[in-house]
Amino acid sequence: MKINLKVIIPIAIVLIGGLIVAKKRGWIDTNNDAVVIEIGFVHQRTVVESVTASGKIQPEIEVNMSPEVSGEIIEVNVVDGQYVKYGEVLVKINPDLYESAITRSRAAVNSAKTVLAQSDAALIETKKLWERNQNLFEKGAISQQEFDAAQRSITVAELQRESSKYALQSAKANLDEAFKNLKRTTIIAPISGTVTQLNVELGERVVGTATMTGTEMLRIAELDTMEVLVEVNENDIVKLVSGDTALIEIDAYLGDSFKGVVSEIANSAKLAMGASADQVTNFEVKIRVLNSSYAHLVETYGKNPFRPGMTATVEIITNKVRDALVVPIQAVTVRKDTS
């Protein structure tokens, strides 16, 4: 078959010229920026919006115990992890100083009672003297100046009696406080629960006052009700409301998930010391772990399978749309010019 060059050459020239014109006008994309998409079918499904955060397991109820008096520990009746009942004696502080304080306070009360009795007697005697002076004044036997002095003596005696009465009240209050301080040397359990942290040993000295937090001796928690404390940034916190459900994964039980409910949302942001203006602002959120969701662990790991401080990840469900029309996200593309 013979090739007709007279026909092929003009056709080639026309094609090359067309390609050049198409490239100049932008009809041909030489940058190879084509978007690869997938084709998917539209179908119905439930769409869930959620917020994910990580935090630590902690008891809902935990009491930090510090002494209200100072002294040396002479008795420790618990160990870390022990279950204690309400009113059970946990720790004792040396009571010697406080027993001595009671002895001194009792002596002060007795002394104040004696002074008050003397003031009463002095007031009675002063009133009798005033009555005699009044009779003498009416008879003209004493001067007005002497009579006025007798009246002033009654006023002074009454004031001394009032002062003695208040001194006795103060001494009694000190005695009452001394008894309370002696009672405070015996540390009892304020709730029934598990000792989750024991910070003191026999012979150690602790510091405490009735108005300020002293040495933290131990912690007692109710491990029957656990929660997860997480931090959520300010962009997501507005999506949460109390009662939102959550799925919880705990590192100690990989492959298992538990149900929870948002129980508390902080109203103010958590501020870090020395935080800069551009630092991420977070809010604390507490998620209660539902007991029924980990009932299957009880047989293997005991009544309280979760321990304070365990790491957990929560997915909080903030919105759910049922029977929504959806397509694969790979099938969605965005174009600047759709003309």
Topology:
Layout: H1 5-24, E1 43-65, E2 71-76, E3 83-84, E4 89-93, H2 96-138, H3 144-184, E5 186-188, E6 193-198, E7 205-206, E8 218-233, H4 234-237, E9 245-250, E10 257-265, E11 282-289, H5 295-301, E12 311-326
Antiparallel strand pairs: 1-8, 1-12, 2-4, 2-7, 3-6, 4-5, 6-8, 8-11, 9-10, 9-12, 10-11
Helix pairs in contact: 2-3
**From the alpha-carbon coordinates, what is the Rg to the nearest angstrom?**
43 Å
Question: Which percent bin holds the helix content?
Answer: 25-40%
CATH architecture of the largest domain: Beta Barrel
Tell me the distance between the termini.
48 Å
Count of helical segments?
A: 5
CATH topology of the largest domain: Elongation Factor Tu (Ef-tu), domain 3
Could you give the count of β-strands? Answer: 12
Can you write the helix and strand succession as a string? HEEEEHHEEEEHEEEHE
Alpha-beta content class: alpha+beta
Structure notes:
- The chain has 3 domains: 50-60 and 223-331, Beta Barrel (Elongation Factor Tu (Ef-tu), domain 3), CATH 2.40.30; 67-93 and 185-216, RNA polymerase II/Efflux pump adaptor protein, barrel-sandwich hybrid domain (OB fold (Dihydrolipoamide Acetyltransferase, E2P)); 95-184.
- The longest helix has 43 residues, at 96-138.
- The mean pLDDT is 85.
- It starts with a helix and ends in a 13-residue tail after the last strand.
- The protein is an alpha+beta fold and 339 residues long.
- The chain has 5 helices and 12 strands.
